[in-house]
UniProtKB/TrEMBL annotation, chain B:
Domain ANTAR: 170-231
Organism for this UniProt entry: Actinoplanes utahensis
Membrane in keyword set: no
Keywords for this protein: Kinase, Transcription, Transcription regulation, Transferase
The keyword Transcription is assigned to this record: yes
GO molecular function: kinase activity; RNA binding
Protein name: Transcriptional regulator
Annotated stretches, region: Disordered: 220-239
Pfam families associated with the record: ANTAR, GAF_2
InterPro entries according to UniProt: ANTAR (IPR005561), CheY-like_superfamily (IPR011006), GAF (IPR003018), GAF-like_dom_sf (IPR029016), GAF_ANTAR (IPR012074), WH-like_DNA-bd_sf (IPR036388)
Source species, domain of life: Bacteria
Length: 220, 239
């Protein structure tokens, strides 16, 4: 598991949700993470109204956020009115009552490592533009980075894209998962921490791991 | 390449139609297509790259997944025939690698080192958008694709695009973005599983992929699901 985030992490994620809402013309934005029991828990939201919207899917156990996580791909609902009534019987009604017409859910993940979901709520129906989609993916990538790096502040807000790593990085992640007997998310966090500490590039760390020149043990 | 026989080509399209049913695995499908394309045109290797949301090409599938070959695909995030085909929407044909060093220095170095002598690249198009490219490598100088070959390989490239669109029923306009994101993430799952198998069983990542594929076939699981299973419970996974 990613270490239980302390307040600074939640604060950074709340700011990220605020930026998501304001830069993507959304009425709200929220972010839920996987807790230890594989259930979602709400971690951050742009404002109290977003928090209630985000919480609703967790309470009802249905909605785009749940689907995006299960399918491991974004759930882009440009018009809630077009959604079949059987898809989310309770959730869709509740959202309409709250004045939400469109929801866009982005999984926070790297391959099989699932960290959570970022949700955008809009009061108007209609799809995100190409530019808005790219912006949303960038924000999702940033949220993954914040979750992985946890409390360790790296100075400047890094906006590296965790999904665009070279394939060696993901292979190394799989190897480290076995070495530490932990999760893929922990493995990536360890690789990144090592790269920061040694001030070297992720790809170079990955190649050392693949060559067997660098190993991670159960205890750091 | 020699002229493709209509019989061999029609067999491939039957296989494609058989595969494009409910709940097929996109990575299995794209792998099959790269292998069949390589067989059909007598290519040494065929690979397929898809663009991520920032328009960078990412490796998706290849007829040969040895690490040194994957590197050739990876370097095309910034230069190479696929990069060109993706950005112009036009195929790159019969490029002679021995005289391509000025055009694509990094790519050419990697490709020559792997023993390739010629390269072609075909854009993957959806309406007006280019979403990726198919790469064909040969071991003859300059390649020798004629017009008929070009049409056949472009048709197979279009089939790969159809596979991507078909993976789930198309529900909405943004479906392509969803598919691409899902596909790119599936590829990462495979790489993670390769690393985990290599570490747990003391084999190379190349051998790990062969083991993963064999395991998926024997247990009748999709490749992505087999990789997911392994990562969820590595302790009880046996090659």
């Amino acid at each position: 598991m990613v270490p239980e985030p302390a307040d600074p992490v939640v604060a950074r994620l709340c700011r990220l949700c605020e930026r998501a809402a304001s830069s993507l013309s959304a009425a709200g934005a929220g972010l839920s993470v996987f807790a230890q029991d594989n259930q979602f828990s709400l971690l951050a939201a742009a404002d109290p109204a977003s928090e209630r919207l985000e919480e609703l899917q967790l309470v009802l156990g249905e909605g785009p956020c749940i689907d995006a996580a299960a399918d491991r791909r974004p759930a882009l609902i440009a018009d809630l009115g077009q959604v079949a009534p059987t898809r989310w019987p309770l959730y869709a009604d509740a959202m309409r009552d709250a004045g939400i017409r469109a929801i866009f859910a982005f999984p926070l993940q790297i391959g099989a490592a699932q960290l959570g979901v970022l949700d955008l709520f809009r009061a108007e129906q209609g799809p995100l533009s190409g530019t808005e989609l790219r912006r949303a993916f960038d924000l999702a990538g940033e949220a993954v980075t914040i979750l992985l790096d946890g409390q360790e502040q790296r100075g400047t807000e890094r906006t590296d894209d965790v999904m665009a790593g070279p394939f060696e990085l993901f292979q190394a992640q799989g190897m480290v998962m076995i070495q530490i007997g932990g999760t893929l998310a922990e493995a990536m966090a360890r690789i990144r921490a090592h790269a920061y500490a040694e001030d070297c590039r992720l790809i170079d760390v990955a190649r050392e791991i693949l060559a067997g020149d660098l190993r991670f043990d159960r205890d750091q | 390449m020699s002229t493709v026989s209509a019989e061999r080509l029609s067999k491939i399209f039957v296989e494609v139609a058989d595969t494009l049913v409910d709940d097929f695995d996109l990575l299995d499908f794209l792998h099959m297509l790269t292998v069949r394309t390589a067989d059909l045109v007598g290519a040494s290797a065929v690979g397929l790259l898809l663009a991520d949301q920032r328009g960078r090409l990412q490796f998706m599938a290849a007829s040969d997944e040895r690490a040194r070959i994957l590197e050739i695909f990876q370097v095309q995030a910034s230069e190479g025939p696929c990069f060109d085909a993706f950005h112009t929407g036009e195929p790159v044909l019969n490029a002679d690698l021995q005289s391509a060093g000025d055009r694509w220095p990094d790519f050419t170095r990697h490709a020559l080192a792997a023993g390739f002598r010629s390269v072609h690249a075909f854009p993957m198009r959806v309406r007006r958008e280019v979403i990726g490219a198919l790469n064909v490598f040969g071991n003859t100088v300059g390649g020798n694709f004629d017009d008929a070959d070009v049409h056949v390989v472009q048709a197979l490239t279009d089939v790969a695009t159809i596979g991507l669109l078909q993976e789930r029923a198309i529900r909405r306009g943004e479906v392509l973005t969803e598919q691409l994101q899902g596909a790119l993430n599936s590829r990462i799952v495979i790489e993670q599983a390769k690393g985990a198998i290599a570490q747990a069983h003391g084999v190379s990542v190349d051998a790990a992929f062969t083991a993963l594929r064999g395991h998926a076939r024997r247990s009748n699981r999709k490749l992505t699901d087999a990789a997911q299973d392994m990562l969820t419970d590595p302790g009880s996974w046996a090659p």
